[in-house]
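Supplementary Methods. Inverse-folding protocol.

Structures were first reduced to a discrete structure-token string of length 243. This string, shown here, constituted the complete conditioning input.
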């Protein structure tokens, strides 16, 4: 991301964001509500158009594609950049397995058999193999969020954007979802996660970025940012979680 800017009704929400994410990295975005974290993620998935700046997405050869170009294949970008929201957004009339199979078969042209095998493997990975035939309303919030993660992974994204995926969960269920996120690093998937879970950001991220008023105020490895923040705004924000 280079100098990314976004405004709503004359109010600048993103004010020149620069951020690089490498394959296999977990980058946590922290900051108060309204700091621009969710808007940033939505711009990366092209759910919002940017007003200025560029988002580059490199392919396996290293060639970079400007995904903010208006001529870009939006669906093609979204197949490479998955997103999961705090609202699970599962299709209530489809079983867990059907939720996972739908996008690969309809949007990516994967055979039904291959999509089914991939879906069952993902459900095994997130600890829900026994729920393949269940419907979303029969699952707990933590289980539904793990299904939502598995559904996003079913498209084999190169980048996964996670927008406050634990904020609607009972505290007892947060850990089971975050355990899934920790395992993504080994797959080489780049994860950009907006979160209020400071313990997770400290333990599982490679990079933490603190946003305030639409800007990245401070960015660095978690041990530096949490233990020795350089900006007083970062220190004041983190102090709320220590009290």
């Amino acid at each position: 991301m280079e100098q990314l800017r976004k405004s709503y009704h004359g109010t600048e929400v993103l004010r020149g964001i620069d951020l690089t994410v490498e394959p296999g990295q977990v980058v946590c975005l922290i900051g108060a509500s309204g700091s621009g974290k969710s808007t940033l993620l939505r711009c990366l998935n092209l759910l919002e158009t940017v007003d200025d700046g560029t988002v580059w997405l490199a392919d396996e050869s290293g060639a970079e594609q400007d995904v903010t170009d208006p001529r870009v294949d939006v669906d093609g970008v979204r197949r490479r950049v998955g997103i999961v929201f705090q609202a699970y957004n599962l299709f209530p009339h489809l079983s867990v397995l059907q939720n996972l199979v739908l996008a690969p078969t309809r949007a990516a042209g994967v055979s039904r058999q291959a999509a089914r095998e991939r879906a069952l493997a993902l459900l095994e990975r997130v600890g829900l193999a026994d729920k393949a035939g269940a419907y979303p309303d029969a699952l707990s919030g933590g289980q539904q969020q793990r299904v939502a993660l598995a559904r996003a992974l079913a498209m084999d994204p190169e980048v996964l954007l996670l927008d406050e995926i634990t904020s609607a969960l009972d505290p007892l269920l947060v850990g089971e979802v975050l355990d899934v996120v920790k395992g993504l690093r080994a797959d080489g998937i780049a994860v950009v996660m907006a979160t209020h879970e400071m313990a997770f950001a400290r333990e599982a991220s490679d990079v933490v970025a603190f946003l305030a008023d639409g800007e990245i105020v401070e960015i660095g490895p978690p041990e530096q940012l949490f233990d020795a923040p350089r900006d007083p705004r970062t220190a004041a924000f983190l102090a709320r979680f220590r009290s």
